[in-house]
Amino acid sequence: MLKVPPIDPKAIPRSQIATEVAKRFAALRRLATIELNRALAPLGASAAMYNILLRLSMEREVAQQDLVFDAGLDAAGVSRLITRLAERKLVSVRVDASDRRKKVIALTSEGESFARTLEPVVDAAMRRLVGGLDEGEERELLRILDKALQGMIQTIQKSK
Asked: What is the pLDDT of residue 2?
């Protein structure tokens, strides 16, 4: 099992806080993936599949290569997963007209419907992940994560 000992944030020097946050993000991602895979397996889904469907539900079309990070798989693994999703008619695949080497993936109406059926399962799995928090703490965590996310987005946009 994963070992990340609890710490007193006030006892950590400021110079080490970012490293401790990174450790916890990595641990939470691993635990979330394990929990999602366990919860989604009975529906014929996985964390990687859910993450791809989620990305496609937020964007009209996505280049297959851009789904690699979302899935947490290598390019070959994403290619196999996209093939399975297409066989299940959850996504459509087309060749990019401007670069015939690239594939563009889009969610089908069947994929949208399937993604919606996964939402309560994912919600329950994530609830187990934050099970030690009360509602106020969950809301505070969401606020802090959103603030960090928006700050990172601004930083990335400024660096372009």
From this structure: 66
